[in-house]
């Protein structure tokens, strides 16, 4: 492979280092340089035992093009980068597939559109409107807890963490007492790189131990959702759990493994992501207390704030694709079977698309960010995420008169789903 842009080892190390994502600004500087000098470059981790090499794609236009070309750039078999080699081997032995969980994000056409269609309507605004009163109740109860805390609190712990988890568990029909278990399982699947969040000491484990732990988490999830599906088949309701339990594809009910995968992707994709964008929105507003007063007075500013917070935080930091054929990307010859990283953090900070991209600009327009991806796999829950954030902030604006930072916010160490893990705020109830 000659003439390839290969990232120097120190840069390669940085772009796969979860701590770099926790520090953020240094990483954004690196992406600024890469978009200029080497917008598509091969990452060959020095510890070649862990990951296969992949092409890092950093420019907005390239990430958009690859996202929309679902024929050439496939999700299957490995749509995320922390599917390191041992995980793949283990998974192949245990399940016959490269991933421990098969779900929408692992499927390509022709299976993907058939599965996606099953719940697509349920996640559209018209159906979600039926959930509004319920979500508003959850938002009220969440803000009750914040107000009860007095005048200072960790916004992540009290508000942005539990609220989206509660909403998504509600739409899946998971009883409240099981929520901590679901939270823990999600962390094990997605956020295991952060010692404060995983609660498992995963960051000190060998890759083999991590895979065993995650496989155990998946088994627990599968058992749990098999029971839930049986209940929903016996007594269907109008929640999404019932839609999945009673779905058929080509006239057949979903195989057990696919059904569990469907529940798992909705359960896990739906909360840490929205938690991160919600915390980010609050951070931006708390950094500029006058802005809080402005939005309290003029609620028409809220949708712009929600959208900008989603871009500014970019909670899902990447997804991966595999080339179905030899193809040129950003001047580089990508071979059939090569692995590519769509880096949404970099794409959403590309100045060719966003003026002054590191600035939180509540009035940014247009704001065609890539935080929800694009193309066939574009986030299924994007309307729900926006709606949840809007309802929560409406409730907060009603009930909190002033709010400001009360300490240093801290980001999670994670290469995949990332965002704030603490956000100390000082506030005065209205
Ligand atoms: C897929 C981001 C909230 C469910 C995705 C993708 C991204 C993303 C980047 C992959 C897109 C691609 O490959 O082109 C986000 C962000 C959220 C959020 C930033 C919050 C701010 C949610 C919620 C749910 C959800 C609330 C559901 C309850 C899903 C599902 C997929 C997905 C099921 C897989 C779709 C497919 O492969 O067809 N999301 N998401 N997400 N998201 Fe979200």
TrEMBL record:
Keyword annotations: Heme, Iron, Metal-binding, Monooxygenase, Oxidoreductase
* SUPFAM superfamilies hit by this protein: Cytochrome P450 (SSF48264)
User: Under which main EC class is this enzyme filed?
Assistant: oxidoreductase
EC number annotated for this UniProt entry: 1.14.-.-
Against PROSITE patterns, the record matches this protein to: CYTOCHROME_P450 (PS00086)
Record GO terms (molecular function): heme binding; iron ion binding; monooxygenase activity; oxidoreductase activity, acting on paired donors, with incorporation or reduction of molecular oxygen
Gene3D superfamilies linked: Cytochrome P450
Free-text function comment from the UniProt entry: Cytochromes P450 are a group of heme-thiolate monooxygenases. They oxidize a variety of structurally unrelated compounds, including steroids, fatty acids, and xenobiotics.
Give the family per the record: Belongs to the cytochrome P450 family.
Q: Which protein are we looking at?
A: Cytochrome P450-terp
